[in-house]
Design goal:
Length: about 240
C-alpha cells in the first residue's frame, strides 16, 4: 500500500510536467486526459473521411507493437525521462524502482535463480501506462501522414492515388522502423492491416449516430482487410508488399 501511494504522488507530479512540457503528442489517446479509445477512432475516421470526401483513394495501415510492455528497456526509458526534463529526484526514484525488480521461474517444483529484470514496465501498477506513453512519445517524430496511437496500436493514414502519397507513407514506415531499431525493439510489428476506405459501405458512412456508426463499422472493416502478416524487423517494412 505505501508503494501505491508513493506511485500516485509521483504520477500527479509527472502528469503536470508532461502537460506543461507537452511530452505526450496529440496523436496519443491512451492514458491522456480527455481522450480514450473512442477519440482515437473518431480522430482516425475524421482524417480518412476528409480525404475520401475529396474522392481521394485512401488507405489506413494498422501497426501493432509486439509484447509492448515487455520490450521497454529500462536504460532507454530513463534516458528519455532525462531528455524530457523530469527532475533528478523523479528520474532517480523511477530508475531504482525499475532496477529493483527480479524474476524467477519454477518448473515441476524446481526453482531457478533470481535474475534482475532489464526490460519491461510492470503492468497493473500506477505508473505503468504513463511510463509507456513517455517511451513511445517520440515514435511519430517527423511523421508526414495522419497518425493516431492508442498505447501500442498505431494507425497511419494517407491518400494513395498519387505517387507523392504512397512515397509519404513509405517514408513514414521507414521512420517508424528506424525508431524501433534505435530503441532496440527486435520485433516491432506483430500484425499489419491495410484498409481501403473507399470501399466502405455507404450505410456505415451515413450512420445517424456514433453508436450506430461503430456497430456498422465493426461489421464493415472485415471486408476492408487486404493483408494481415507477421513482420520481423529484419524484413523491413515495404509499402509495395501491402
Amino acid at each position: 500500500m505505501p508503494g501505491k501511494i508513493m506511485e500516485q504522488i509521483l504520477l500527479e507530479t509527472m502528469v503536470r510536467h508532461m502537460e506543461i512540457k507537452e511530452v505526450i503528442t496529440d496523436s496519443q489517446h491512451d492514458f491522456t486526459k480527455g481522450k480514450s479509445c473512442l477519440t482515437n477512432l473518431v480522430a482516425c475516421y475524421d482524417g480518412v473521411t476528409a480525404l475520401a470526401a475529396k474522392g481521394r483513394a485512401t488507405d489506413t495501415i494498422s501497426l501493432d507493437l509486439c509484447k509492448a510492455f515487455d520490450t521497454v528497456l529500462h536504460n532507454i526509458l530513463v534516458s528519455k525521462l532525462e531528455r524530457h526534463g523530469f527532475d533528478g529526484w523523479t528520474t532517480w526514484w523511477i530508475r531504482n524502482w525499475l532496477d529493483d525488480c527480479t524474476q524467477g521461474v519454477m518448473v515441476i517444483g524446481s526453482m531457478s535463480k533470481w535474475r534482475p529484470v532489464r526490460s519491461g514496465i510492470p503492468q497493473g501498477l500506477v505508473l505503468g501506462l504513463a511510463l509507456f506513453n513517455i517511451f513511445v512519445s517520440d515514435m511519430d517524430s517527423g511523421i508526414e501522414c495522419i497518425l493516431s496511437k492508442f498505447a501500442d496500436d498505431t494507425e497511419l493514414c494517407d491518400a494513395v492515388d498519387a505517387l507523392e502519397g504512397r512515397d509519404a507513407i513509405q517514408r513514414d514506415l521507414n521512420r517508424i522502423e528506424r525508431w524501433a531499431c534505435v530503441n532496440l525493439i527486435k520485433k516491432f510489428f506483430s500484425t499489419r492491416v491495410v484498409r481501403h476506405w473507399n470501399r466502405l459501405p455507404r450505410e456505415a458512412v451515413g450512420a445517424p449516430s456514433l453508436e450506430v456508426f461503430k456497430a456498422r463499422l465493426d461489421g464493415a472493416l472485415g471486408n476492408l482487410v487486404q493483408q494481415r502478416v507477421s513482420l520481423p524487423m529484419a524484413g523491413g517494412l515495404e509499402l509495395d508488399d501491402l
